[in-house]
Design goal:
The chain has 544 residues and is mostly beta strands. The protein contains six helices and 38 strands. Helix 3 runs antiparallel to helix 4 and helix 3 crosses helix 5.
Length: 544
C-alpha cells in the first residue's frame, strides 16, 4: 500500500527540528560492514571480518562493488577521481552510505548524468557526508542526487550533510504518471554554483493519493547561487512538501527563488530565503511563515531566528586559519600523481588532476559570499563565489589538469566592495605552482644527470615496450630494480615492499612511460617520477 505521510508542523520546542539529524556525527569505521579506501594508488573494498573484497585503479568499480553489497558502507577520506566511463551510483534499500568529512568525489569535466540515484522501490537508506564536485573546467551538466520515481515508489530515505558544487541540478525529483516519491528527508545540504537547486519534474497526469511527490522534507540547507543560477526551487508539486530554513543566497537578477505549481497542495515554507525574488505561489492552501509573509513572531527563539532568516547553518567546511584575506594550499596527501619540490616550487604531472584550495576569513562577516575573479592566461575572467560561514571563513576548490591552459592565473577576492587581495599561480608544461611548501613536505631528491647515454637509451626502449604492453609489469620492474641497484634511484622504504612476489605499478603511469618514449618528458623527469612513486609506496617491489 502506498505510504502517505502527513506533515504536522510543531513549533513548540527549540530542539524539534534541528537536533535529531546530527546525532551520528562521529566517524566510527569499525561499525560498518564494508569500507572503501585508498592505498598506494589503488582503491579497495574491505569487509572488516573477511578482508579485501576487490581492488581497482579507478574508484568507480570499488564503490559500485560496495553499493552492491548494501548494508553499512563507509568511504574513507581522500579524493576519488571518477573515470570518464562513470555512469552513476545506485543505492539498494536499507543501505547506509557514510562519506568521511574529507572524502571528495570528483566527477569528470563535462559529465552528463547523476552521481547518486534512489531508484524505484528504494527505501530506508541513509546517504551522508562528503563533498561532490566537477573536475575543472566545469560544464555543469550533471545531477548531484536523483530521486527516480517508479510504480513501487521512493520513500523514507535520509540524505544529509553533503556538499555539492557546480552541478546543473543539486537535487532532482523525477517521475511520471503512476510513479511516486514520498516521505524523503534532506538535511544540511550545501549546494554551490548550480543552475537549479531543487527541481520537481513530473510528466503526465497527476492523481492525488496515487502518484507524485508527497510529504518530502527539506531542512537547514544552504544553496550558494552563482551568475548561472536560474532557480532556487523549480515547480514545487503535489501534497504536503515542507521546507524549513532553506536558504538561496545571492540569486542573480532575473532568477527565481522558488515557484509553487498549480497541482501543489498544503506546501509548508518556514523561514529561509525561498519566497523573495521572483517567487510565485499558484498552489492550494500554502502555509508560509517567513520575513516576507508574517509580522508576528512567536516566543520561540529558534522560530524567531528562522523567520528573520538568521538561524545559523551547520555546513561541512574545512577548518582553516583565522587570518583575513586569501590563502591557498595543496591537499595534505596526494593520492595520485607525483610532486617534486624546491622550497616554493611544485611540479605536477599533467596527467593527474590536483586541487588547489582557496580559503580565508573576513573580519566582519555579514552573510553572502566572497566573489573570486579567476583570470586565465588567455585573459578570460571566470567569476566564482565562495560561501561565507557565520564566523567569516570561506573555502573554494580549484582543480587543474592536463587540459588547463599554460601560463599565469590571477585570483582576486572581493567581499562587499572590500578587496581581499590576489593570488598568482604559474602553470608551466610541468604544472608548476609557486606556492609555499607545507612544513611536512620534503624536497624531492633529483636524480643525477645522464652520465651514461647507453643507459638512458635502454630505459627509453624499455619504457616504450612497457607502455605498448609488449613487456609485463614484472619485466619493467626488473628495469626499476636495476636503477635501484646502480644507485640511480634510492631504495624504497620497507613499507612500500610488495607483500607478494609481483611488481605493482599504477596503470596510469604507463602514459608517462609513453611520453618519455615520444620525447615529451625528459629522462631525468621520468627517473624523478619513479623515485617519488617508490618513496610514497605507489610502486611496490618484491622483497629481495
Amino acid at each position: 500500500m502506498k505510504i502517505i505521510i502527513a506533515v504536522i508542523v510543531l513549533l513548540i520546542s527549540s530542539t524539534f527540528l534541528f537536533t535529531e539529524s546530527f546525532a551520528q556525527g562521529v566517524d566510527l569505521t569499525n561499525n560498518f560492514g564494508t569500507i572503501v579506501y585508498q592505498f598506494n594508488g589503488l582503491y579497495y573494498v574491505k569487509d572488516p571480518l573477511t578482508g579485501i573484497i576487490a581492488s581497482s585503479d579507478t574508484p568507480d568499480t570499488v564503490i559500485k562493488t560496495a553499493l552492491s553489497r548494501g548494508g553499512d558502507i563507509y568511504l574513507e577520506g581522500g579524493t576519488y577521481f571518477l573515470s570518464k566511463n562513470f555512469a552513476g551510483f545506485d543505492l539498494k534499500s536499507g543501505t547506509h552510505l557514510k562519506l568521511a568529512k574529507d572524502a571528495h568525489i570528483v566527477v569528470p569535466s563535462g559529465y552528463i548524468g547523476y552521481v547518486f540515484r534512489f531508484n524505484s522501490g528504494i527505501s530506508q537508506c541513509v546517504l551522508e557526508g562528503g563533498d561532490i564536485h566537477e573536475l575543472y573546467p566545469v560544464k555543469r551538466s550533471w545531477i548531484g542526487i536523483m530521486m527516480q520515481g517508479g510504480p513501487t515508489g521512493v520513500y523514507i530515505n535520509l540524505i544529509q550533510n553533503i556538499s555539492i558544487t557546480n552541478p546543473y541540478i543539486v537535487i532532482d525529483f523525477n517521475a511520471t504518471s503512476g510513479q511516486w516519491i514520498n516521505a524523503n528527508t534532506f538535511v544540511n545540504i550545501n549546494g554551490n554554483y548550480f543552475v537549479r537547486g531543487i527541481e520537481f519534474d513530473f510528466a503526465g497526469k497527476h492523481t492525488r493519493y496515487v502518484d507524485g511527490f508527497d510529504g518530502n522534507t527539506f531542512r537547514d540547507s544552504q544553496f550558494q547561487s552563482g551568475p548561472m543560477t536560474t532557480y532556487g526551487v523549480k515547480d514545487i508539486r503535489h501534497d504536503r512538501n515542507a521546507f524549513y530554513n532553506v536558504q538561496f543566497w545571492d540569486l542573480p537578477q532575473g532568477s527565481i527563488s522558488s515557484n509553487i505549481y498549480p497541482t501543489s497542495e498544503n506546501t509548508i515554507i518556514i523561514g529561509g530565503l525561498m519566497t523573495h525574488q521572483g517567487f510565485v505561489d499558484n498552489g492550494i492552501n500554502t502555509i508560509i511563515l517567513d520575513s516576507w509573509h508574517n509580522s508576528l513572531l512567536p516566543n520561540s527563539t529558534i522560530t524567531s531566528a528562522l523567520i528573520k532568516s538568521t538561524y545559523p547553518p551547520n555546513v561541512n567546511i574545512p577548518i582553516i586559519p583565522q587570518n583575513q584575506g586569501l590563502n591557498m594550499n595543496l591537499p595534505q596527501q596526494l593520492t595520485t600523481g607525483f610532486v617534486k619540490g624546491n622550497k616554493a616550487q611544485f611540479a605536477l604531472s599533467q596527467e593527474i588532476p590536483i586541487d588547489i584550495n582557496i580559503y580565508g576569513k573576513v573580519n566582519t562577516p555579514r552573510g553572502g559570499a566572497v566573489i573570486l575573479h579567476i583570470t586565465g592566461p588567455d585573459g578570460v575572467v571566470d567569476q566564482n563565489q565562495a560561501y561565507i560561514t557565520s564566523d567569516g571563513t570561506f573555502y573554494f576548490p580549484l582543480i587543474f589538469d592536463r587540459n588547463s591552459l599554460i601560463g599565469q592565473y590571477k585570483i582576486t577576492g572581493l567581499y562587499q566592495n572590500s578587496n581581499l587581495g590576489s593570488l598568482f599561480i604559474n602553470v608551466t608544461s610541468n604544472q608548476t605552482f609557486p606556492i609555499s611548501t607545507p612544513s611536512n613536505q620534503s624536497t624531492m631528491i633529483v636524480p643525477p644527470s645522464d652520465s651514461n647515454e647507453t643507459l638512458s637509451v635502454r630505459i627509453n626502449d624499455d619504457a616504450r615496450l612497457w607502455s605498448q604492453g609488449k613487456i609485463s609489469d614484472d619485466t619493467f620492474g626488473n628495469t626499476i630494480q636495476y636503477l635501484i641497484n646502480t644507485g640511480i634511484i634510492q631504495k624504497a622504504n620497507e613499507n612500500s615492499t610488495s607483500l607478494d612476489r609481483s611488481v605493482h605499478i599504477p596503470t596510469w603511469f604507463k602514459n608517462n612511460a609513453g611520453w618519455l618514449a615520444d620525447g615529451q618528458i625528459s629522462y631525468n623527469d621520468f627517473i624523478s617520477e619513479i623515485q617519488y612513486l617508490l618513496k610514497n609506496g605507489m610502486i611496490l617491489m618484491p622483497s629481495q
